Amino acid sequence: MIGANGGKGTLAGGLRVLTNPAVSGIDPSWGRQDRTCPVTIQGSGFASVSGAVLNRSGQTNITLAGLSATATTAAGSFSIPLSAPAGAWSVAVRNGDGPEAVLADGFEVVAPLNADALNISSGRQGTTVPFRLTGENIRGTTGTVVVSLERAPTTVTAQLTSVSSTAVEGTFALPADATLGTYDLRLRDADSAEDLVSGAFEVGRASGVDTVSPNALPVNRSTVLSITGDGFTGATAVTLTGIGDPIPAATLTVLSDTSITATFALPSATTPGTRTVEVTLAGGATVSRPNAVAVVSNPVVTSISPTWGRYVWPSTTFTVTGHDLGGVTRVVMSRAGCNNITSTGVTPSESTVAAEIRMFVAPYDPKILGRWNATVVTSDGPEATLVGAFELVEVPRVTSSNVTSGRRGTTVPFRLGGTDFMGTPASLGVNLSWTTGTPVKIPARVVSVSRTAIEGTFTLPPDAPLHGYEIVVRDVDGLDFGYNTPFSLLEASSIATATPPYLRRDSVPATLTIRGVGLTGATAVRLRGPGAPSS
Q1: Which one of 26, 57, 114, 387 has the minimum C-beta count within 10 Å?
Q2: Topology of the domain comprising 300-393
Q3: Strand order of the sheet with strand 35-44?
């Protein structure tokens, strides 16, 4: 060193020459209030860097902590206080006591992250749900920002498609087994700042069909199906599939998100068989329940046996004949103004039904007498009725008889008048009955039966006990009646004496007095023997 007076001297340690630093950038170029932000400042001349700060007019500098420098970088962390105003801050780097380099407005202080609103509030298991989340101060890219739905034990992380400072868009792929219920929404951006919105999203049951009622659709009639499930809001169609062409519902009513009614009017030519019920949801997706309903042919009744009965009958097995009767669960007898009578048990096949029915009506009321309809009812709803199939009749009564007596050894024709005689000559029995002491029964030969008359003959044995008998009729249903119709069995006709005991040949006419039994109504007297006249 040369002094003012020309003297020379030497500075111990020599002279240190400092290179002016230059700042070209900072990464990241932003940091959030109330967080510590690691950064790397890029530039040149950093070998002797002694410090770096963020500064802004009127604000306290924010100093870089943990400085680590190379010739081109200076790394460390800025702890940004909550009070630091959001906006642009300059980055200043100093080499010792020497020059300072400044990157004007090179760093942005960002306010805390805020998630405002999600444009959807619910989704269903097994679906992919698009969403848009609005907010404030969002920083990052689709690769660094994370949006998730959280409810223990399920976390659903979104697939993001776009990120801006005020909105994030993407989709949630909700697992089929996702926990049902309310989820919290978590937004995390590039500096790991987070905001949590509690109860922001509801995961509901997967759209689907739970129940269909009834489970059968008869052809040639209109039937309303009640369908329960989930996700039905906005549903556009209900269709039967599985056999032949799909069959759409004639009408559809969406009652709620969980309930639909659909009306089907199936023509008689519809092929019977099991169908899948398919619901088309809003947006076009479909849900279904396989084998939910069966298209069935209507039962047909062609006859019933027996065709009549007494109102005092016990339970009787009826045989109903027809086709498509395999699903019959009961047989109902009906008549206007009377209570229905329902079978107590049925044994169905495709062509016949055996039904136990007690056609007993008490107390007695004349209006029950007459024709009744027979209706078969199936488990899936269809019915078939045979009108006037069965007649309920009164207890039979004998009101008149054209005979009141007969003699041993004779055949006596009879005609009984009365009401409600049923059966045929082969199935209906008529007897002379005596029940005092040793019972005696003399059967008749029945030759004709109508509702009001029975005709036939009694062949009276020559040794039949002489008693006062009753004419008893046994109906085809085993019912005995006619006990107030008396019949007297008389001794066989015979001649005890004839006086005088002789008649002279060629004598003038003479009177012959004959005494005996059963001579009333005699019309002729004949003499028989060698040479006797014929009368």
Answers
A1: 57
A2: Immunoglobulin-like (2.60.40)
A3: 22-27, 35-44, 73-80, 62-69, 49-55, 87-95, 100-110, 30-32
CA 274 to chain centre: 14
Class of domain 208-296: mainly beta
* Residue found under tokens 């040949």: 505
Same fold yes or no, 22-110 and 300-393:
yes
How high is the pLDDT of residue 309?
79
Radius of gyration of the chain (CA): 57
Query: What six digits make up the tokens of 529?
Result: 């023997």
Q: What CATH number does domain 114-204 carry, 3.30.70.260, 2.40.50.140, 2.130.10.10, 2.60.40.10?
A: 2.60.40.10
- Average pLDDT of the residues in 460-468: 89
pLDDT of residue 1: 46
d(CA 149, CA 165): 20
- pLDDT at res. 280: 95
Query: Residues with Cβ < 8 Å from 447, sequence gap 6 or more?
Result: 425, 455, 456, 457
What letter does residue 17 receive in the DSSP assignment? Answer: P
CA distance linking residue 324 with residue 265, whole number of Å: 20
Q: Which of 334, 339, 336 is nearest to 376 (CA)?
A: 334
C-alpha distances out from residue 286 to 210, 283, 294, Å? 14, 9, 20
Q: Number of C-alpha atoms within 13 angstroms, CB side, residue 224?
A: 8
H or E element, residue 221: strand 221-230
Say which residues have a Cβ less than 8 Å from residue 84's Cβ, sequence separation at least 6.
Answer: 33, 59, 62, 109
What is the C-alpha to C-alpha distance for residues 460 and 434, in angstroms, rounded to an integer? Answer: 14
> Buried b / exposed e across 469-487, counting CB within 10 Å, b at 16+?
bbbbbbbbbeeebbeebeb
Cα separation, 154 vs 178, in Å, equals 6
Phi and psi for 339 in degrees, rounded to 5? -70, 145
Nearest to 64 by CA among 102, 90, 38: 38
Tokens of 531: 């040479």
- Classify residue 185 by its DSSP letter: E
Q: Are residues 38 and 67 in contact, defined by beta-carbon separation less than 8 angstroms?
A: no
Q: Which CATH superfamily is domain 22-110 in?
A: Immunoglobulins (2.60.40.10)
Q: Which of 132-146, 252-266, 421-435 has the lowest mean pLDDT?
A: 421-435
